[in-house]
Design brief:
The chain has about 300 residues and is mainly α. About 70% of the residues lie in helices and about 0% in strands. It has helices at about 5-20, 20-35, 45-65, 80-90, 95-105, 110-135, 140-165, 170-175, 185-190, 190-210, 225-240, 250-260, 265-290.
Length: about 300
Amino acid sequence: MDSSSQLSTAFIATAATTFNAPNMGLIAFFGLVSLVLTRTRAFSETVVPVVYILVAQVPFFAAFHTFKLLVPQPAGFWADIPLARFDAWLHGGQSAWDAYAAAFGRFIPDDLVVLSYFSFWGAIAYVFPACIVAFERDPKVAIRYVWLCGLTWVILGNVIAIAAASAGPVYFFNVTGQDDFRFLSGFLGENDDIFGGLMALQDRLWLQHQDGDLGTGVSAFPSLHVAASMLPFLYAVEKLGKWAVPFAVFPFIIQYGSVRTGFHYAVDGYFSILVVVVIHIWLKRRADRKPAGTDLLSPMS
């Protein structure tokens, strides 16, 4: 099968996986919630845009995960060694994992890390755009955050991830032959009651990568987990100002968890935060120059 056929097949397979009964139930649920909570607004201003966004996410995320197949191409996972060295330089000559463990390991339970990094993050990251469309009354703000979500996933998760292909600390030995992070397997294995499922996932992701399974991919830099967790925080800052500080807890835990689990170098998250903030500021300035009454689904141009 040639590369174009493989990508087409991957897209269809991933879309079919995404467009399943639970997700259709999610679309119906948010349509109902938006209808009840925003019943004073026109149907076309609430439920219809929410359904548009949720349905549009099916091909969007199918395409996103399909293009993750291209991450190690054309130069392979070339960035792991420079990222690991830069990470150590940033943290005083030690790995970010050691620095984080010393600073925060006593205060952040590993159970909370696993729960936040997978269950909480998945619920927030994939539903946030629909929530914005459902509950934000200013269409300029709503469309801006929808664009922020889309650009974040595409620019960080596809464009930059392909340009700076890296596998992450947990796969460091696999791609470099160096054992800088071999301690991770020991740490995770010693806490099998907490990280057992995560280790099985890491093994499965690598095997799928080796087999070239459709719709899967291994990618560390930059961190989409951290980037997506920043979006609700930025929205809270815009709406609540200094009272949004508690909303910073979630992206902080995700950043910590990305390092703790071995999926990411710390710089993966730092870079993602920087890029998301830059995109956010750029979109806000562009939106502020647009006339009032802009339709929710109109382009940013």
